[in-house]
Structures are given as structure tokens and as C-alpha cells.
Amino acid sequence: MPTTVQMLRGYPDQLLEVMAELRGAFLEGADTPEQKIEMLAAQVTEPTSVQMTYDELAETYPPVEQAIETLLREGGEMREAQFSREFGGIRRMGPARLERETPWFYPESVAELLYYYGMIGTGFRGAGPEAHTTIYIPDDVSPWLPHPFNPASEEGLNVRPIAPPSAGRVLPADDGFLEDVGTLIGFLHTERLRLTPSGPDPADIDRFVQRLQMPFADEADLNVRLALLLHLANRMGWLRRTDDGSVQLTGNRVRAFMDQTRPEQRVTLWKAWRDSPDWNDLCRTPGLECAKAGNWSNDPVQTRAAVLRILAMLQPGAWYSQSEVIDAFKEAEPDFQRPTGDYDTWYIRRTDTQEFLKGFDQWDAVEGELLRFLLRGPLHWLQAMDLAEPSAGDDYGISLSQWGAYWLGEDAPQPHESPRRPLMVEGDFTVVVPHGTPLIDRFRVERFAEWRSSYPQYVYQIRQQSLQRAADEGITASLIVEFLKRHTRALPDKVERALLRFGETSQAAHSSAAAAP
Hints:
By secondary structure, the protein is α+β, with helices and mostly antiparallel strands. The chain is built from 24 helices and 17 strands.
């Protein structure tokens, strides 16, 4: 079936604006029709948006539920003639008639209602006598709708979806960790990260934490996130220890990562965590400690594989109670990290009481705590799991994200990428780098400007010292001007003149130095 982007390409501009208004989408900042389509598609195919739209329409117009279920049972597509006999047709209108009749306010059928909300589209199949029009659910909408059969129940995970949370409670799996990777690369290029016998120097880590985009209220989770960030960077071969005991970047491998597309970078980080035998999630779980006693060991790669296999049973985009999912783990596969069922020889204790947690009756305190950490930690940080803050008396809500569904082998398309926004250069020589800017471009800014802040967008300041640092690395003022002109809507004349003047002065000073005896 076509994707939402493919479906929208045949729509007049007016219909795109209508759909955006009906779905609460924002189209500001789109410079071209294609960007408008991509921005709209990215928002209306977001799992929570699809589910909330479906729930609202089904509650107001009950036949909506049957219409969607009918299409899903037919594989997501039906002949229009067959579909319209039960759910009505869709009137074809040009721009003038659309403006005159505003049919989205007064739909004549369930089919029209779903059409104007972007839940279904019309297509064409066959040729000659076999040619016919179709009604279909776009490929990137179908995975987030309630399917006639619950795959989790069928495969043995006894858990049912809950109502989607309000938008204000949702903590979407975003690019925050990936952005932190870019911040680490920039920090290691311009600053020092010294090593001590017990690990990275705390003062250097504190300076690095100030550059992270979002503050962490939970210090324990922040410490694990930082440890994972450094572990993955080291596992991918980016770091080397210098003779003076500090950490430096290995240029070639870092550059190879930076040259990847953003989706490729997400996959690289995901696989680096998933396949790492040296990152032990159990021993990193806040509140637990793996004691070096006895002859026991666990296999973190096997544990992650088991957890991901079980989570793949969840319906993508549907929301579940975290506690109910953990209970379902315990019922369906309690030994997911202990294949031999050994609960007596593992030396794991609570960090607050130093109590050893042995026996199956401690499952919730060990396996349950590990699962809670994985769900709110690595799986959320690496964009596989959306979270929802608990309301009164509830546990966290969890939902397999678009990337999670894509990675875990579900029949889900690769998520849309939002169009990149341009850099902004102000007259006071500040450079604003929006969230989502390719990491390679943010790194280029970092090479000729000094970091100032990271929230809500990255802000850098062009200064004489930063320009001199860039010049020492062979980055000329003309190259900086060319880069800024290419990635901003407008480069202030004042800034351009000052950069070129610095370049002339720097070149003259270099020539004089070279000519000196």
C-alpha cells in the first residue's frame, strides 16, 4: 500500500491545510510543497496521533470501528465499490468545489470522514477491463490501528492495551541520546576529558553534562546514561587514551559515523547496545548491585535478545501498563535472563540495604527491576519505546515506538524524517543550531564557534578565539562563510564582512610570520 507521503502528493494544497487543522498538525516552516507534505505525514502517522484520532472518530461515529476493521481484515485494501456499499463513497471535488462545499464539515459517509482525517486514501489497480479504484489504509498508518487480532495474546503475552494517554503525559522516544552523542563528539574535540584511576574526571564530566540538552532529575539514571554513552563510543572505536591520560577522538571512525544519515546513526547506536557483551544491563540497573562472589555470571546479550523477542509481541503503537507488561513477562517467560532457572546462586543485592536477593520470590525485585530500567532507560533512550508519565494511582504507560516496531521485525515502515530546519545566524555573532540538524553540521559549527547553551536549541558564539582555533585547523574564513550561506536563509552582512576581514588579517599575519627570518 502507498505511504501517507505518496497519498498526499495527489492532494490540492487546500486539502493539506484542512487535514492539518483536523489533526492538529503544524505546517509552519515548510518552504516547498514537498516539505509541507513531509511535515504533515510525519505528524499524522505518529502512533499516538493515529490512535487518538481513531478513538475520537470511533466514539463519535461507531461505524468507523467496523470500517477500519473490515479494511484490516482484507489486508488494508478493498475495491472501492465493495467498500462503499457498506460505508459510503467519497465524492471527488476540485479546489473550487472543495472551497464552496467544505465537505469535511459535513461528510456524507464514514468513508468521507476517514478520508478527510487522513486515515484512508483512494488508489487505482489493474488495467483494461480489470481496472478499478480502491480504498486503502496507508502503510504507515495501519500498524498503529487496533487490529482484529491481538498478536500479544495470540503468541502468549497475556496483556491488553489501555486507553492512549493524554498528549501532556507522553514522553516520546526522541533523538535526545543521538544528540548527546553529537555533543560528546564536539566536547571531546574542543575540551579535555581526563581519566583517573576510578574513571573519567568528575569535573570534566560535570562540564560535559552542562551541554546535554535536557536536565535529568534522577541522578542514578543520568549516571547510567553517561556510562552507556561512553561505552558505546568506546565500543565503536571512537576513543583513544593519550599519553597525558586524557581521551581523544579517533578521526576516521568518528567521521564514518558522522557521514551516515540520521536513520543509519540510530541503527548503529541500537546495534552497538543490543550486541554488546560488555554492557551488563542487570549490573547497571539503579538500586541493584552484582556482587563479585561465587562462580555465577549472566549473559547480557542473551537477556536483551529474549526481552526484545517478547516485546515484539506487543502491538506497535498501542499503549500498555508497564506493571501489566512486567506481570505478563513473569507469567509467560519468567526465566528470560536465567535459562537454567537458577535463582539461588546469583549474588545480586540491593544497594540501599545490602540485602542479597535470592530465590524466585525475589523475581520482582530483580527481574522486575531490570525490566523497569530497560523500559525507561536504554529502550527509551535508543528510541524503541515511548513512555507516558503515570496519572494518579497508575504505573507508567509504555508503547512500542515507530523505530521499535521497525527494529523488532514488525510489519512497520521506516519512520518519516522531519525536514531539516536551517541554521540561524544573528547580528551578535550567535549561531542557533535547531534540534535535528545533522550531527556533522553541528560539529562543523563547533569547530569555529564556542558552545553557549543547548536548550531548547543549540546556541554557539563566533569569537576571535574560536575563529583562530579553526584557522589553526586549516578552516579558513571563506569556508566558514560558504558553509553558513549554504545552511542559513540569510547571513547578516555584518557577520559576513567581519568573517572575511578576520580571514584577511589572519592570512596577512601568517604570511608575515612565514617571511620572518
